[in-house]
């Protein structure tokens, strides 16, 4: 539904030349309406002109694109390349203006969501990495402009930094002279960077503003790097932290711990305890056997999101999770890669029981859940009435067992998404679990379709056709990886080449 005001705004921006000639006569409070109309219709020239003449003290992209009384559509999932480039170019033109026309003090460029299918007319997206590079290059251009405005504009943004845009981001964040656009980072993602590069760029981001830090994939950190990063940079407002695989491994040459004490882990835990707003922690693929209490125990705030996938947890770790303070606050939990219902059946049930009032998303991929475990799993999930998402990929369950599980899931009133594994009936008899990607992709598609249709009928008969079911064999869409796949592929190839050279050198030394 749209108001008459919004229909009028659409009519105006539909004729860009008329709109551009009329902007000086438009009331200031209509600029937000014209902006959303211009974004909706992809009138990039109008969007750019609006930012160039923005008459208000604040510009908040996410709020302007969200639902409103004049237009209820949510445009925040449109990362339209043409419009986002127009926003940044218009912002650059704005700060170069002199005189009393300039009132803008804050430009918040966050709030755009990256999705797989773009709904904007051009269908071309500008992802987080591209937005980072565009803003950084614009900042660098303005820094050398003789027309640089004296009163800077504060820009709130989300940064995605890799080797490919590292240098331009560093120049943008650490200008040698005046900076008409002063970048303040709220969310930071790093990939394919060295530890020293990561430390350098994070020091420049204004870590006091940072709310979310994701260090992923091809950033090779060990426990010494993590301790140095947290101790030297400081993140007082950090709410979410993601560390890469093996981030808690001991540094090379470090003397193995024999008495149970781990100074590096103790120091990391203390640094985390100083982050009084930390509620989300992802440390997947780090070996943390027997260390969970030491890592999570000192935290001052209960965690709402916890990812411990493939962390080799033992009985003591599971007992701490089930009985500790975090259990009753968890909303998102990932325990993939652990034989939960086989090794820790009672502890796992106790954990779900304590988290039942808050748990919204549960991921149990490659947990060795078999047909004989379905009844126990159904009972453990029974109290989880807030559960909205359940992911079970990679577990050796038959079609018959999945039907039994689905009947139980129908009793969870808020459940909306189930990712279920390819039934083991669809693979050759005796297939091993967990499977590699090649084996995972070789299944009987016709048999799968028949079983999947049967599972959907179970939901329909129970009146639960509101539950979406799927089997994303190769994982869900990741816009960040999609955008930088070429660069990351080259990074991995170089890493492989370096490993081969080191191996060859070691062989020669042995000769």
UniProtKB/TrEMBL annotation:
<comment type="similarity">
    <text>Belongs to the PRAME family. LRRC14 subfamily.</text>
</comment>
<dbReference type="Pfam" id="PF00560">
    <property type="entry name" value="LRR_1"/>
</dbReference>
<dbReference type="InterPro" id="IPR032675">
    <property type="entry name" value="LRR_dom_sf"/>
</dbReference>
<keyword id="KW-0433">Leucine-rich repeat</keyword>
<dbReference type="InterPro" id="IPR050694">
    <property type="entry name" value="LRRC14/PRAME"/>
</dbReference>
<keyword id="KW-0677">Repeat</keyword>
<protein>
    <recommendedName>
        <fullName>Leucine-rich repeat-containing protein 14</fullName>
    </recommendedName>
</protein>
<dbReference type="GO" id="GO:0005737">
    <property type="term" value="C:cytoplasm"/>
</dbReference>
<dbReference type="InterPro" id="IPR001611">
    <property type="entry name" value="Leu-rich_rpt"/>
</dbReference>
């Amino acid at each position: 539904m749209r108001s008459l005001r919004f229909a009028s705004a659409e009519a105006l921006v539909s004729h860009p030349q008329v709109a551009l000639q009329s902007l000086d006569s438009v009331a200031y409070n209509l600029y937000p309406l014209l902006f959303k109309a211009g974004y909706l219709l992809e009138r990039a020239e109008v969007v750019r002109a609006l930012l160039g003449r923005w008459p208000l003290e604040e510009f908040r992209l996410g709020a302007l694109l969200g639902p409103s009384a004049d237009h209820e559509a949510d445009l925040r999932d449109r990362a339209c390349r043409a419009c986002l480039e127009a926003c940044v170019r218009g912002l650059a033109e704005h700060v170069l203006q002199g005189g009393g026309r300039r009132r803008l003090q804050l430009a918040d460029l966050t709030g755009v969501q990256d999705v797989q299918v773009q709904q904007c007319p051009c269908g071309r997206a500008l992802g987080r990495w591209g937005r980072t590079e565009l803003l950084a290059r614009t900042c660098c251009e303005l820094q050398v402009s003789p027309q640089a405005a004296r009163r800077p504009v504060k820009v709130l943004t989300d940064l995605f930094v890799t080797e490919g845009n590292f240098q331009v981001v560093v120049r943008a964040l650490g200008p040698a002279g005046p900076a008409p656009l002063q970048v303040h980072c709220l969310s930071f993602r790093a990939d394919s960077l060295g530890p020293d590069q990561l430390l350098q760029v994070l020091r420049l981001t204004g870590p006091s503003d940072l709310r979310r830090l994701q260090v992923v994939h091809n950033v090779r950190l060990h426990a010494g790097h993590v301790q140095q990063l947290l101790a030297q940079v400081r993140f007082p407002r950090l709410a979410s932290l993601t560390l890469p695989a093996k981030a808690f491994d001991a540094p090379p040459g470090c003397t193995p711990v024999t008495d149970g004490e781990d100074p590096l882990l103790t120091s990391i835990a203390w640094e985390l305890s100083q982050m009084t707003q930390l509620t989300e922690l992802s440390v997947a693929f780090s070996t943390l056997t027997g260390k969970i209490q030491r890592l999570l125990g000192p935290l001052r705030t209960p965690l709402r999101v916890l990812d411990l996938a493939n962390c080799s947890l033992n009985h003591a770790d599971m007992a701490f999770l089930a009985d500790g303070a975090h259990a009753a606050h968890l909303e998102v939990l990932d325990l993939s890669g652990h034989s939960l219902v086989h090794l820790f059946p009672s502890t796992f049930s106790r954990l779900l029981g304590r988290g039942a009032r808050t748990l919204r998303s549960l991921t149990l991929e490659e947990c060795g859940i078999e047909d004989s475990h379905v009844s126990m799993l159904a009972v453990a999930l029974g109290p989880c009435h807030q559960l909205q998402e359940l992911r079970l990929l990679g577990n050796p369950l038959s079609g018959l067992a999945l039907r039994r599980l689905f009947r139980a899931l129908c009793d969870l009133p808020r459940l909306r998404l189930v990712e279920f594994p390819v039934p083991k009936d669809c693979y050759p008899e005796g297939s091993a679990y967990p499977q590699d990607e090649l084996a995972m992709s070789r299944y009987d598609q016709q048999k799968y379709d028949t079983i999947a249709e049967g599972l959907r009928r179970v939901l329909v008969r129970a009146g639960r056709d509101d539950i979406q079911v799927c089997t994303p064999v190769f994982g869900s869409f990741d816009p960040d990886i999609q955008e930088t796949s070429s660069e990351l592929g080259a990074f991995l190839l170089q890493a492989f080449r370096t490993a081969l050279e080191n191996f060859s050198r070691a062989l020669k030394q042995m000769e």
